[in-house]
Amino acid sequence: MKKLPLELSSPIPEKGGVSIEVGSRSIAVFRVDGKIHAIDNTCPHRGGPLSEGPLDGTVVRCPLHMWSFDVTTGASSNHPGVQIGCYEVVEEGGRHFISVPE
């Protein structure tokens, strides 16, 4: 894993997310109770952008077909066994960093 600065081009909305590109990965970034979480931005069902889905607590719903994922674990909350990438985000010295596979 490599740790990179988390570069956001816009603020994270209260009940939604933003997308960022890290290398060839599209990642959705959310803020829950003051903590930042990051998961794959692409829903495995039909490729919907999870960053554009509504966030309810720690669960984001795909805007296309309502598949749901916990932003703290990447696990689907309505399709057991389905998992998407989940990336650690840490704060150091007032800056946020994301850990992604090399």
From TrEMBL:
Keywords: 2Fe-2S, Iron, Iron-sulfur, Metal-binding
Cofactor(s), by name: [2Fe-2S] cluster
Coiled coil regions in record: none
Superkingdom, taxonomy of origin: Bacteria
Keyword Iron: yes
Domain Rieske: 4-98
GO MF annotation list: 2 iron, 2 sulfur cluster binding; metal ion binding
Family: Belongs to the bacterial ring-hydroxylating dioxygenase ferredoxin component family.
Cited PANTHER family: FERREDOXIN-RELATED, RIESKE DOMAIN-CONTAINING PROTEIN
Protein name: Non-heme iron oxygenase ferredoxin subunit
Natural source organism: Leptospirillum ferriphilum
Phylogenetic classification of the source organism: Bacteria, Pseudomonadati, Nitrospirota, Nitrospiria, Nitrospirales
